[in-house]
Amino acid sequence: MASDKVLTFSDDTFDSEVLKSPVPVLVDFWATWCAPCKAIAPVIDAIADEFDGKVKVGKVNVDDNPGTPGKYGVRGIPTVILFKEGKVVDQVVGAVPKAQLEALIKKAL
């Protein structure tokens, strides 16, 4: 079941929602046809629930929003990038375990 805490970011909203966010933002770059993206989706949902209020969690569909992934060098999906104060803190590519994403977030908190 998808978490209602996972936001949807677009090329148009990325600057205001992610780069200007007062809290760290975890962004999942994905596509509907990507099997590993579907595999990591429940992990992203769990992270959104677990870190609610501390970290903003959202997704960017790379097919619908090609500008933002290009700007951040996203070449493979899923790519998960953690932003803090408008800058990239860290990123991982592929369907990684939840513990790896938790460790990534803890670096920014």
TrEMBL record:
Keyword Transport on entry: yes
Q: At what residues does the UniProt record annotate the site feature described as Deprotonates C-terminal active site Cys?
A: 28
Q: Which cysteines are disulphide-bonded?
A: 34-37
Extract one GO cellular component term from the record.
cytoplasm
**Residues covered by the Thioredoxin domain:** 1-109
What keywords are assigned to this protein?
Answer: Disulfide bond, Electron transport, Redox-active center, Transport
Q: Which InterPro entries match?
A: Thioredoxin (IPR005746), Thioredoxin-like_sf (IPR036249), Thioredoxin_CS (IPR017937), Thioredoxin_domain (IPR013766)
The organism's place on the tree of life at top rank = Bacteria
Q: Which residues form the active site?
A: 34, 37
Q: Which PROSITE patterns match?
A: THIOREDOXIN_1, THIOREDOXIN_2
Residue numbers marked as site, Contributes to redox potential value? 35-36
Write one Gene Ontology MF term.
Answer: protein-disulfide reductase activity
Q: Name one Pfam family in it.
A: Thioredoxin
Any one of the GO BP annotations = cell redox homeostasis
PANTHER family noted in UniProt: GEO12009P1
Q: Which family does it belong to?
A: Belongs to the thioredoxin family.
**Name of the molecule in the record:** Thioredoxin
Question: What organism does the UniProt record list as the source?
Answer: Geobacter sulfurreducens (strain ATCC 51573 / DSM 12127 / PCA)
Give the encoding gene's name. trxA
